[in-house]
Amino acid sequence: MAQKRFKNWKKPKIKHGELTKWNWMVQHPENLKLGQETDIGAFTYINAKHGVTIGNNVEIGSHCSIYSLSTIDHKKGRVILKRNCRIGSHSTIMPGVTIGTNSVVGAHSFVNSNISDNVIAVGCPVKVLRKIKQH
Amino acid sequence: MAQKRFKNWKKPKIKHGELTKWNWMVQHPENLKLGQETDIGAFTYINAKHGVTIGNNVEIGSHCSIYSLSTIDHKKGRVILKRNCRIGSHSTIMPGVTIGTNSVVGAHSFVNSNISDNVIAVGCPVKVLRKIKQH
Amino acid sequence: MAQKRFKNWKKPKIKHGELTKWNWMVQHPENLKLGQETDIGAFTYINAKHGVTIGNNVEIGSHCSIYSLSTIDHKKGRVILKRNCRIGSHSTIMPGVTIGTNSVVGAHSFVNSNISDNVIAVGCPVKVLRKIKQH
């Protein structure tokens, strides 16, 4: 179960292309669905043009990039970060990728494939390391 | 051939050490030659002290660092990103490096050697994967 | 010996959660001990909640993350960067880690263990490559 980290979580104010109070930024925030008690690190960039869904209690580290559109390789598609998953710092999530519930993506990962629920995955490109033990 | 991405590309306003409208930054912009219809991602940092040349239609992802000066290892030298090359997110380009025309550097690469034209390269340190098929 | 890089180094103004003049940021700066003639790159993020000590002449590249608290894996502990060590760009330093005097951490490293004095280390996770030759 997710730890209780927030006493008074409020949905952050997000404007297209501008740094939030925490110095992360979103393009096309009208296509971002942001869950409750989510936490996004400094210098993270989200391109929500083709849709980004971030479930409740998701944590994203600093310096991540979440791309629903990657102009460099002409890929696009909704990114879904399911409830309570965690994305380590300096990771890139490519268009169309879904990260499963409770799963953890290690820092410095390049995620170009779906990650199932309840696993730990890491690497460039990302590979599943093991299942998370259920409590 | 490069896709037509811009209807009304304008040269961005760049001031030494300040974030641009797109939240990337340049030091010593007087030594940056920036081509037409270039695209630079959020949180990318360019140190142009010893010269950085970015050709037409070049794309640079988010969270890249382009160093013509690396104080950490006392290296310096002009960086040249040739026409239509693309640099994936979270990549570092070291002093003196040239990236060839149309070439693609994959995300999360550390580029400390020249990359020839028309290839795909990736890794830490970067290695050429293959030639790009000509259309 | 560290090169003389600064003529007039001054301690930077740091406010919790705000970008400095050089576009890096610190959370909980009251728990940051910052040495003289240190140099920190753009888009670097320091979470000093549980203490970060940065010795004299330390250099930190762009896009680094220095965590005394990592909420994603529930780790915490003081980070110590000893005198004259250097941290390459895009590196992550995890809670409780000490980097030794004069040591160099290569770019794109994930540092989750202590690094002794006078070595070069690199990788995800970081590994020591070799000793630095003494002059």
Automatic annotation (TrEMBL), chains A, B, C:
Q: Which GO terms describe its molecular function?
A: transferase activity
For this UniProt record, the keywords arranged alphabetically read as follows:
Repeat, Transferase
Question: This protein's superkingdom?
Answer: Bacteria
Note the InterPro entries from the entry: Hexapep, Hexapep_transf_CS, Hexapeptide_acetyltransf, Trimer_LpxA-like_sf
Instruction: Give the matching SUPFAM superfamilies.
Output: Trimeric LpxA-like enzymes
- Keyword Cell membrane appears in the UniProt entry: no
User: Record's PANTHER family?
Assistant: SIALIC ACID SYNTHASE-RELATED (PTHR23416)
Q: What is this protein called?
A: Acetyltransferase
Native organism taxonomy: Bacteria, Candidatus Yanofskyibacteriota
